[in-house]
Amino acid sequence: MTASGKIKHALFHRFEQELSNPVAMVLKASSGLSVSVFDQMTVLTLLSRQELAALIHITTKTIENYRSLKKKLNRPESEQLLQLLVLYKKGEEIFGSIKEFNSWLKLSHPMLGGLVPFELLYTTGGIQLVLEELYRIEYGAFA
Predict the structure, then answer these.
(1) Strand, helix or coil at 109?
(2) Local structure of residue 126 (DSSP, 8 states)
(3) What phi, psi does 142 have (nearest 5°)?
(4) Which of 123, 134, 133 is nearest to 84 (CA)?
């Protein structure tokens, strides 16, 4: 298994309850995630540190400050990371790989009003819209 495969498996297993239970997700986010989860998410999502940091509304400098102070991510940052983890898990299930899912995220889609899904990932509402589109694809609705 590759390093990214091990990280993916570890993240999906570690947050198994949060991925399937919104209440557990909110509770976990309220306690904050460690910076190591951010690092693992960059490997899992194949996104750059800057891209992922922007999606959770934080700078890479702030990430490094958190790391040096051994501080956890704040509640909104943690929740956004967990929401992205749910999205990427479903995306990989449907597209077979994170790379293919990332390619899909970068194309405009008529079912999203011609929007590019990746541009919606900056808010939890946008993540939910993209997730709903993935469910439509999964269940055979034309997407």
Answers:
(1) strand
(2) H
(3) -65, 125
(4) 123
Q: Measure the CA–CA gap between 56 and 123, rounded to whole angstroms.
A: 8
Cα gap 32→112, rounded to integer Å: 31
DSSP assignments along 90-108, one per residue: HHHHHHSSHHHHHHHHTS-
Closest CA to 56 of 19, 83, 34: 83
Closest to 85 measured CA to CA, from 118, 129, 38: 38
Q: What is the pLDDT of residues 6-35, one digit of tens each?
A: 877 788 889 999 989 999 999 999 999 999
What does the radius of gyration of the chain's CA atoms come to, in whole angstroms? 15
**27 residue type, one letter:** L
The phi and psi torsions of 28 (rounded to 5 degrees) equal -65, -40
Does residue 18 contact residue 25 with C-beta atoms inside 8 Å? yes
Tens digits of per-residue pLDDT, 113-140? 899 999 999 999 999 999 999 999 998 8
Q: What angle do CA 70, 71, 72 make, to 5 degrees?
A: 125
pTM, two decimals, is: 0.92
